[in-house]
Specification:
It is a single chain. By secondary structure, the chain is an alpha+beta fold. It has helices at about 1-45, 55-60, 155-160, 190-220, and strands at about 65-70, 75-80, 85-95, 100-110, 125-130, 165-170. Strands 1-3-4-6-5 form a five-stranded mixed barrel. It is a multi-pass membrane protein.
């Protein structure tokens, strides 16, 4: 009888823990979906002038419009686009009408267009401020000789091109041969549903195993 009672208590306690973890992940899922909806709404909002002193925490995803000209320099970030293949993001200096030098992510080009000259005349660029978090301990250092970067490091790129550490990701074409890669919330992880399913599945397995052990214990006691 004591063994059966121990298994029952142990099984109920474990089930409670697993169900609470699954329920917590469901709450986290609702929170994350609300956050992503807020980010998407911010990204698609009406554009405004570039802030005088943009702050990464406060102004991330802020939609802006700037007018000026592109500097002929540019940096190439190695990327791969789904259904297209490998190529480069074009990061170029943009001199605004107010004389500020900022970075603009113009978008994607195929690898064979690396040496093609881009349109640099006066224009308006609409897009979103962003400070991508793409650097980790495994990211290779840029190959400056071949002008190949492996992540968008805003601070390092600003130093290389002599601009403010401010990046605008264009949402519209700035050159006929460059396809925009607008910022969106698709790259923000949202795995809470999978986690919830995992915890609830474990709770189901735990319940089945508890019932099995209880049945075997009772059978041995009767035997």
């Amino acid at each position: 009888m004591g063994r059966v009672l121990f298994l029952l208590i142990f099984g109920v306690a474990g089930l409670g823990i697993l169900l609470s973890l699954g329920t917590w992940q469901v709450r986290r899922l609702a929170w994350k979906e609300g956050l992503l909806a807020e980010i998407d709404s911010r990204i698609a909002g009406a554009t405004m002038p570039l802030p005088a002193l943009p702050e990464p925490d406060q102004d991330k995803y802020l939609p802006v419009a700037v007018t000026g000209v592109f500097d002929p320099q540019e940096l190439h970030v190695l990327v791969s686009v789904k259904m297209v293949g490998p190529g480069y993001r074009i990061i170029a200096p943009f001199v605004t009408d107010e004389g500020r030098r900022i970075l603009v992510d113009r978008g994607f080009i195929p690898t064979e267009d690396k040496q093609t000259a881009r349109v640099a005349g006066p224009m308006e660029v609409t897009g979103n401020l962003h400070w991508p978090d793409e650097i980790d301990s495994y990211t290779p250092v840029p190959d400056l000789k071949s002008n190949i970067w492996f992540a968008r490091d805003v601070d390092a790129m600003a130093v290389e091109l002599g601009t403010e550490p401010v990046l605008v990701i264009a949402r519209e074409r700035t050159d006929p041969g460059v396809a925009p890669l607008p910022v969106d919330s698709a790259g923000i992880p949202n795995d809470h549903l999978q986690y919830a399913i995992t915890w609830f599945a474990l709770a189901l397995v735990w319940t089945a195993m508890t019932i099995l052990f209880l049945w075997r214990s009772r059978a041995r006691t009767k035997g």
